[in-house]
């Protein structure tokens, strides 16, 4: 596997301040498609007969919202808040006119309630979905995709003085959470955010958010390796199963394989492949949920787009 460039060759001194600030924020969007539950476009709702109360003049029906458990109707209007269509426009959903149309078409939910009145006011702490995809209204929230280099510790302040991600983000005013961890000898995609609820869901195996890795292993790769990994490998702390496995490239004595799983245990990919008889030579995480590493360079980061943040929420069931 061709490793990313510009690596250090062993222990190094802490880099000087200001490193990483603002780097890569104009990068290309990392997600290639919506995950499960990522929006119910026109006509995507459950089918059914003509609703009661419809007059003899045929009218177009509003887009149905995705099926979701409904709580008892509550009043979501906050008289001291901001008009819903204005908040949606500020969040990048569309122009004010487009947002008004989304509301009147019944495609907007606030705290689980469909809102069709243009006079409704809400605050940025309320939960809003458009076509089933959550919209981020709080402008103080930060969502970053970072390409962690080799020999960088996944810690904001390493007690041993090693180079860590705090050297790249320690001067930011927000308190950032890293979503999961990557070993010092593993590189690739690491998400950082100050949205604690989302960070928790993305790394908890209960919510099944998939992580994709490219591993270089010793070859040749036997035909039944994928089957064995999907059926499960027994480790000292319990079995592990991959969600997907494929051989990307094969050369004499080594191969590159793609491993997708929702597990997050320490060294899980390395331990699993070693137990299967194919120790990892190098490892890169290339994707978390719908977010791809893309062409972000090692040591650089980019802000996620509004659409990518919505896809992450959908992947985490929020």
UniProtKB/TrEMBL annotation:
Residues 17-52 have a biased composition (Gly residues). It comes from Knoellia flava. This is Pseudouridine synthase. One of its GO terms (molecular function) is rRNA pseudouridine synthase activity. Residues 82-141 form the RNA-binding S4 domain. Its EC number is 5.4.99.-. PANTHER family: PSEUDOURIDINE SYNTHASE FAMILY PROTEIN-RELATED, RNA-BINDING S4 DOMAIN-CONTAINING PROTEIN. The lineage of its organism: Bacteria, Bacillati, Actinomycetota, Actinomycetes, Micrococcales. Residues 1-80 are annotated as: Disordered.
